[in-house]
Amino acid sequence: MKKILIIEDDSKSRSNIKYILEAKNYKVFTAESGADGINLAKEIKPDIIVSDIIMPGVNGYKVKEELSTNPATSSIPFIFLSAKSEIDDIRKGMNLGADDYLTKPFKMADLLKAIEVRISRVNEIVKKNSKESTVENESRSQKLSRDDAIFIEVDNKPTFIKLSSIVYISALGEYSNIFLKDGSKLMVRKLIKQWEEILPRCLFLRVHRSTIINIDSIKKIEKWFKRSFVIHLENSLNPVYMSERFARKLKSQIRF
């Protein structure tokens, strides 16, 4: 549920806006002064701030200026509300970094639309950044070779391990066990999904929802129950089971 902070000194306007936004399933917080709005914004870090401009004491412009200097609140979308409609006032608000500007009296439909547009744009940015981060991680992982080492923390101690020394990795909740060729085992706080992003896909493959194997360590693959398989790995007494879905991925890299 998205959080919206309303900063408005007029109690009636504040209540009306709160009522309409809550009816649209937003979680609404209100402040009756600019000073209270600044403190509340820093505390709850809302998804959007809707603020009146003309308020006693700390006005809307000062609220925006103050929050813009704080890294935790500087990127929060900001919508100004005001009875002032002169072009200079609108320009001042936009120069301060406001995302939108509605003049009173305004239709609630216009406010709702402005909020929806801001949320949509934020979601697009987050999605784009997430996609770029994933592509960057994948690109970096593909540059790793068998002779490369990766950095991990074991018991809060920095450790480097060679990729070629890993037989397989098994998930254990938020942790994972790394089984090495020398028979030792390391436990680290890392999800199996994070390992998929780090390890080069030409060398490592996920063969189970909780297991990633080193392809070079495969000793034998046998058919098992129905269309699943059992994988025997070198330097490991524990076989690994693989479903048909994961088997198709492995068949694209090796023949069995």
Describe this structure as you would to a colleague.
The protein has about 260 residues and is α/β, with parallel strands linked by helices. The chain folds into 2 domains: about 5-135, Rossmann fold; about 150-250, Beta Barrel (OB fold (Dihydrolipoamide Acetyltransferase, E2P)), CATH 2.40.50. Helix content is about 35%, strand content about 30%. It is built from 7 helices and 15 strands. It has helices at about 10-25, 35-45, 60-70, 85-95, 110-140, 190-200, 245-250; strands at about 5, 25-30, 50, 80, 100-105, 150-155, 155-160, 165-170, 175-180, 185-190, 205-210, 210-215, 220-225, 230-235, 240. It has a 5-stranded parallel beta sheet, sandwiched between helices. Strand 3 (about 50), helix 3 (about 60-70) and strand 4 (about 80) form a beta-alpha-beta unit. Helix 2 runs parallel beside helix 3 (about 60-70). The longest helix is centred in the middle third of the chain and has 35 residues, at about 110-140. The radius of gyration is 28 Å and the shape is elongated. The two termini are about 50 Å apart. The model has no long low-confidence stretch (mean pLDDT about 85).
CATH homology group of the largest domain: Response regulator
In round numbers, the mean pLDDT is 83
Main β-sheet, spatial strand arrangement? 2-1-3-4-5
Low-confidence stretches: none
The tally of domains stands at 2
* Terminus-to-terminus distance: 49 Å
Number of helices: 7
The level of helicity is 25-40%
Structural class: alpha/beta
The CATH topology of the largest domain turns out to be Rossmann fold
Given the C-alpha coordinates, what overall shape results? elongated
CATH class descriptor name of the largest domain: Alpha Beta
Beta strands, count? 15
